[in-house]
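Q: Give me a backbone?
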Amino acid sequence: MARRRTTGGGMSWTLNPDSGGVKIPPDVQERTRQRILAHAEKHYKGKYTRLDIRFRGQCCYIDAYREPDVPKNWPPKDWKLDRDMYVEQLRNTPTHLCRLRYFGGDRWSLAFYKYSDDKYELCVFHNGDFFGTPEEGLDVGAVYLNE
């Protein structure tokens, strides 16, 4: 959670929003899931078919599933998948939105999923801070729902 750093001959501790954190207790997991789902329903209804919110250690991962928009003549006839199989495969492919890291209370850091290298990267919330709420984290990741 904190990293030791030398400053002018002395030592100080700094909080690193990209590492550490606190394991998320089951009651916090359930409250967080409900908060994210309620926020998504209010602000992003119709932009996803379902959300997958999962917890691992100190992190919460948010993925969305959407109804694919596939042209009528796709895929080509020489593909191994027929159209129905292709559409079903796309329906079951998640869009990774973000990863939240828990620091206790209502303090979370945020990592945005980068499709360019398939990794989560630390980022700031819309208010310019490294810490915020799960709802604010969803708002950042929801950029992928507007495509």
